[in-house]
Amino acid sequence: MTEHLERVERHNADVLDQAAELILGAVTGGGLVYAGGSGHSLAMVLEGFFRAGGLACVHPLYTPEISPLHGAWPATEAERRSGLAAPVMEAAAPRTGDVVVIFSNSGANPYPVELAQAARSHGLPVIAFVSGPSMGAAPARAGVKLGAVADLVLDTLVPPGDVSYPAQTPRTAALSSLTCVYLWNLLLTRMADRAELPLWVSANVPGGDERNAELLERYSVRVPALRRSSAG
Question: I want to staple 115 with a disulfide (CB 3.0 to 4.6 A). Which of 6, 85, 189, 199 is the partner?
Answer without folding.
Answer: 85
